[in-house]
Amino acid sequence: MTRLSRDIRRLSLGLLLCAAPIALHAQPLPAPAETVEEVPAPRFVQSENETPWLFENSDIPPDPEWVFGEMDNGLRYATRLNGVPPGQVSIRIRIDAGSLHERDNELGYAHLMEHLLFRESEYLGPNEAIATWQRLGATFGSDTNAETSPTHTVYKLDLPNASVAKVAESLKLLSGMIREPVLSPGNVAAELPIVLAEKRERGGTAQRVGEQVRGTLFAGQRLAKRLPIGTEETLRAATANSLEDFHDRWYRPENTVISVAGDIDPMVSAALIEKWFEGWEGKGAAVPAPDFGDPVAPAGGTGANPVGEVAVIVEPDVPRNFTYAVMRPWRPVVDTIVYNEGLMMDGLAQALINRRLEARARGGGNYLYAQVQQEDVSRSTDATFVSFAPLGDDWEAALADVRGVIADALATPPTDEEIAREVAEFDIGLASAVEQQEVQPGSALADSIVTAVDIRETTAGPETILAVFRGMVDEVTPEAILEHTRALFDGAVVRATYVTPDSADASEAAVRTALAAPVSADGSARLAASSISFDDLPPIGEPGEVVERRPTGLFDIEQVAFDNGVKALLWSTDAEPGRVSVKVRFGNGFESFDAQDGPYIGLGPAALIGSGIGELGQEEIDRLATGRKLGFDLGVDDGSFSFFAQTRRDDLEDQLYLFAAKLAMPSWDSNPVNRAIAASRLSYESFETSPAAVLGRDLEYLLRDRDQRFRTPGPETLSQMTAEGFRETWAPVLEEGPVEVIVFGDFDREAAIGSLAKTFGALDAREPAADADLTAIPAFPEAQEGPRILTHRGDPDQAAAVIAWPTGGGVTNLREGRQIEILTQLFNNRLLDALRERVGASYSPNVGATWPTDVDSGGRILALAQLRPADVPVFFDEANAIAQDLIANPVEADELARVTEPLRQAIERSSTGNLFWLYQIEGATADPRLINLARSVGVDYSRTTPETMQQLAAKYFGSHEGWRLAVLPESVAGGSSGVAQPNAR
């Protein structure tokens, strides 16, 4: 991307954000002064003659865009200029302390410390962090966040519209948080319930299974029993003094790395880091990190891979899953070019096995999926994991199938053709990264430094990675791949877990015996060597004629119409080099189906794409895609279907062919359908495990007033479904309704029109479905007295609550629909504060809004929270109180500005990408009003008045009491929770 084109885009965006054809007024927003003291030159920047601290002992060329520095107190930093998105600066502060650094009586302290730093610190008073970042334009939870892992704690800030003054203020605030948090008894007591609530929300069956898997695979190591969330016992025992001790021990400059990437001079950001962190000194003597331990082979084990710890984990409501790991000790490496060549060879070996495993599954294997993955886990082990899901209860047959494919890879070198296929796939992925490096966001670059430090390696630019790969291609021989494959499965110990709903399935002895049993190599999954070319495929039809070309008036977007009725929106722009986004809208979505079609609708995204085109199945399509950047996602909306992919200029015509061929000559292979049905059957078993799972199964169905098209099919229904039934459901809807093709990105416009003429222009003319043939989307359900109740079989301290109000849809009132987003953000902030104050809920409360544009109704405002069962009535009381207050009283200017400024900044950043505008104008060939509405998108989402918010609250909260749902544990439903008796599903 040239700087000029980026500046033109920013100018155009500014005009759009200022265009306000309705009487809306932005609220004044307090902001730090735009003047800042002159920043002296940084003193600790490493010179060109010095090896950057991240690249010591490495021969990998450092990226010259990075500025590295190491201060006298031991703190290290890396900064660089990046303008994606324009105006944003991303800051990451990594502390080399995670859950593995905790003592036995400190479990959960690293994560609790993360929370406490946001509560109060040297420059932030109690509970000021959220409001302060919002005033700076950052959305809390997305732009401002933190993470705690076993090996580190990272504080993250993506600061929009970042002047030097704002960056200076942000680093000042962050320095106060890191160096001098207020770890008072009052703050600990206030934050502890929030952390415990987060632990409760993460808990349940999945967490319980995860803990048992972790305890088995990492037995004897610190990783086995140190989850970042900690234990209730150690968290409740935490005191201000014990947390102060943890902070003093690990929050030290020599344990800290800061990365900054964004629209600011890197020397300025380096100087600001030095200003606010130079005076920081660790308290007391430095403490070395504990030994994380090694995987230890079982006593008396024999053979190259003795089977160690094994666990059969029985959980009634979870699908079967088998994992075994070949484990080796983790050791620091010297991150050289040769080392990275070895990693790439390992990657090729794994890709080859995984492709064969997928082919075996497609061809009738006894497992739904299987995957091999090498991973360095938390600096604790270098392991190769093998995971699969048996199709039924015969896990031994599935294990034998998987081991047979791996045994073949271990016994016999791959063919040259197989290697060429994987090399081509790697090359296109790496080459695409080079093409798109100009649009790599600063947040990703800042994260790359954090990741490199965490794994004790370096980071490299896309061009360096591609050069290393292409420089080693001649060494990728069948014998070399065989050698690396064998190394991947050579380890000190094998450990395994089998998760099953039935205790009669297996015993630990049976699992151990099956893993140790001899296995025959299965070469049936070796892939055919024959290649397929798009040139060999049949044409879609006679190329169409262009009957109209006209500008839309928005940017340089052009509308093109063909004689068969297909219309296209084309925007050729260099804003995202090397990337082309393609979206095809067609048909009528859910409106095309009847109630009896419901069970088959959800299979579409998996089975329809996997069923192939013409005489080609998924395997043949995969071979067609070798060395190309092609995609195929299917979406089903209320009033339309869509295909979507991101490709590149050279592959655009082939991408268009794939999409058009799916409409013109769909294939109906039964294997993908049967596999999708099996996957649905397995996933259904887990829907009772937690409130969130129950909501995933039933919420949309209930909000659609029990319309059968939106119901998740159960086992009885799934057992009756067939491939022929799938075809009867989907074949008609692929043939009806208008087609709109949107192509935005880095491509040649005239060549694209020629490709469209040969593909979509060559389709038979399609008649729009008659209104009589469409099934209307159901109305919003009527509110009832008391909430509807659903139950789950998970932990008894988990519940969820939902309240929803209907809004609208369509294009006519779309600007009002956008304004509702501001209202919901106000609601969200208030609900978060209320629940934290009353019940100690974590950050789970969420309020959102939808407003579909492809139908004229169906929008909603929905508030959801995960809570303790006893707190469900509190949620409903607070949500109702907030709704009524928004009706009764206009919001204050500062509260409104803390919502509109982050929204404005989010839109300004998002709108520098092509996808933002694609989503704004999709459907415009059918309804041109969307073009004009795109001009006001910035205003609509970010400029309003207290009076407008009050009017919207009255219109939508005042006209409907709110539909309510509670998901409670079976043991307490209808009991002491204070909510009504259960209603039948």
Outline:
The chain has five domains: 63-277, Cytochrome Bc1 Complex, Chain A, domain 1 (2-Layer Sandwich), CATH 3.30.830; 307-525, Cytochrome Bc1 Complex, Chain A, domain 1, CATH 3.30.830.10; 539-587 and 612-665 and 737-766, Cytochrome Bc1 Complex, Chain A, domain 1; 598-611 and 668-735, no CATH class; 788-969, Cytochrome Bc1 Complex, Chain A, domain 1.
Any overview of this molecule?
It contains 32 helices and 23 strands. The relative contact order is 0.11. The protein folds into five domains: about 65-275, 2-Layer Sandwich (Cytochrome Bc1 Complex, Chain A, domain 1); about 305-525, 2-Layer Sandwich (Cytochrome Bc1 Complex, Chain A, domain 1), CATH 3.30.830.10; about 540-585 and about 610-665 and about 735-765, Metalloenzyme, LuxS/M16 peptidase-like (Cytochrome Bc1 Complex, Chain A, domain 1); about 600-610 and about 670-735, no CATH class; about 790-970, 2-Layer Sandwich (Cytochrome Bc1 Complex, Chain A, domain 1), CATH 3.30.830.10. The strands form four sheets. The chain has a seven-stranded mixed sheet with strand order 12-13-14-18-15-17-16, sandwiched between helices. It has a six-stranded mixed sheet with strand order 1-2-6-3-5-4, sandwiched between helices. With about 1000 residues, the protein is α+β, with helices and mostly antiparallel strands. Strand 13 (about 560) and strand 14 (about 565-570) form a beta hairpin. Helix 10 packs across helix 11 (about 395-410), helix 20 runs parallel beside helix 25 (about 750-760) and helix 27 (about 870-890) packs across helix 32.
